């Protein structure tokens, strides 16, 4: 479990109630007249009591609300409603908190208090984020950012970018999350907000981990850890240490998925255990029960994976011994979580125990714990663990020889998995997602449009001036020639602007955007996506000057652009050293899979030639993996100011997994793509290959075109 640190509005920052301050305010309240001063005293006293005595705090706030309305004291009413929302949120009443925040916002809108409105939008987004409503939170943060920018509130606008990055990271929208978090880092003075900078580097570490950039992830986490140590933030130190331990576990699991059983795998597991224990000492010192339970659970998970490492190496005794060690950690985590009533945490523990039992081939017990965590997942509506439960049911029943039950649960698993990506859900998500990609391109378009507008104004001014001063046919002819030349300049600039727009968007989408100011999202039932990535790019990047690295990468991507252009394939985006494109949109085609595979083979031919040139020049050699998958997507233009053409759906995720599960210099395709191209290309079955987050998936290597045989 990754740990993140959101920026919270002032009204939600925890502060210790001072009994002396509370006593002083209570004394003043006894003699206060029923006027606006009394309202403010009631609010201030409630604020001091919000943690330790919420019931009394609520009584004071209710009195303040009645008095505010009686006096017509709108400012006091708005503050009271806001404080009431804070108390509700602190004590776990999320829906009640949102209701009070919305009522407070309505009052502040009446008062024209836009700064207060921005703060309440942020507060509502905080609550929604804590509830797991990330799309709702993203909308709130985006709206708050807009108001902050309009008010010129630069510092809080910058912090809004951090919160947006935080949510986008949770939604898996990593490129846009990085755009926002680096915007925050670039515009924040570390001396003024060192803690915020540390938290931002923690987000960067999370994203780098998810995108398999492990050295960069560790570097980011280390920056966060060093800053928190300087600040004396022990809780945050423990959280970053937990993320670093998770990173070690992830690196080990990646090697395990590829059946690479080298000593470094054992080293990663041992490092993870050691770092978890370091974080645990801090949690114990802080008496953080929930944090301790989380680390106990993580230790159980890493040990069950460590046991599988020994099993794969053929050391059954050591595997059983390691799995037995998980019992203590899971039991300690479960005890705390049951005492705290943390249903989600209990569910996680049951999931871990079920997985250990399955690996130990104790299938009836594995089934029992799976039923337990699946029941909680349904109760709290956790779709991720419901999906995991259905998958585990299918696997366990299959191992027990009950193939009819296994098939039943596999069907339910597939239905739940793909229902997540229905058109309605995808369209709703893309409407809400705030993205800030291709900023420079968009800025160039906006700059060109401004230049065109200025040119038009200049022409109108010149026309008026010249007609008023110049007489005679000859001079009018000269004027006409001048205007013609100026008009040609405007047309050229307009053409350049249109060309730039077409460089970002498909032609049909660009025309729709220019005509209507927006472009509708569209669902495509069959599209083929391609991802590329360069092997050991991070290591290569460390060996080359930045300018040379970018030049080499640019040469590759320009070649890719030219190749896909010949096949009518649409480039979606580049993400670092990854290249992402799609065939079969915006105009559907029947040859999208075939076109994409041909383009992929040409890309690999280019890369081999390019690699030979690099080798001859004594440079590090770029070696490319390519992955291809076919399936449904939703495509559209996202954002309002800084738009980009993008696509969404599980097809995209699976395409990325085809790349990461492939091999250098090969084109790896999924079963769905294979079925469409098997008569056109020589393909080598790979069988079921473990794809990160997808389980076992049928894959094929494309060897060549059958027409060339």
Question: Outline of this structure?
Answer:
The chain has 709 residues and is an alpha+beta fold.
Mean pLDDT: 81
Nearest-angstrom radius of gyration?
30 Å
Task: Say which CATH homologous superfamily of the domain at 519-708 is assigned.
Answer: Nucleotide cyclase, GGDEF domain
Uncertain runs: 6-17, 421-446, 464-484, 494-504
User: What is the overall shape?
Assistant: globular
Give the C-level CATH assignment of the domain at 519-708: Alpha Beta
CATH topology of the domain at 519-708: Alpha-Beta Plaits
Largest sheet: 8 strands, mixed
Strand content: 5-15%
The CATH architecture category of the domain at 519-708 equals 2-Layer Sandwich
Helix-strand blueprint:
Layout: H1 19-31, H2 36-49, H3 54-71, H4 74-90, H5 94-111, H6 114-131, H7 134-151, H8 154-171, H9 174-186, H10 194-210, H11 214-231, H12 234-257, H13 263-285, H14 289-312, H15 316-340, H16 343-359, H17 363-379, H18 383-399, H19 403-419, H20 423-432, H21 439-469, H22 473-504, H23 507-516, E1 522-534, H24 537-543, H25 546-566, E2 570-575, E3 578-583, H26 592-616, E4 624-638, E5 644-648, H27 650-660, E6 667-670, H28 671-677, E7 681-691, E8 695-705
